[in-house]
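At this stage, I put together one protein's amino acid sequence and its backbone structure tokens, which the following lines show:
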Amino acid sequence: MSAASARLALGGGCHWCTEAVFQLVKGVIRVEQGWISTPQLPGESEGVIIHFDPGVVGEAELVELHLHTHASLSDHSMRDRYRSAVYAGDDDQADRLRAILEELGAGLPRPPVTRVLPFGSFRESREAIRDYYRRDPSRPFCRTYIEPKLERMRRDFAELVDGHP
């Protein structure tokens, strides 16, 4: 990873979906898919770590995409497994992320359930399910759940899209 790269950990929906969404973004260098823990809550939740070039794409743009590509307004019963969160590595990043969420939330129909949480640890998914969409976009799960998110990105966030995952 170059000195100009940064990272952001996110959780929301299925990590297969989140991985594919952020693999499509300009300036994203790498997406790690797996399970994230936070000291504030028990257990792990599906999530990704995005390694990105902040000279190309910023935290605010990544958080905005995140809010629009998972059920960020819904506090559904699966939130233990699919925690809607942005994970901060330190207090400065937590402050930036809270400000970003507050600003973006003002433009939504209701406040997002997405929280800023301290990053605890990351456990990468097993090799067989990494790059899930890239390995076989014709799978029923990919066509049903991932492709509609990618189409929305191509339509609503075209300036951030960098080809196909």
The chain has five helices and six strands. The chain has a mean pLDDT of 92.
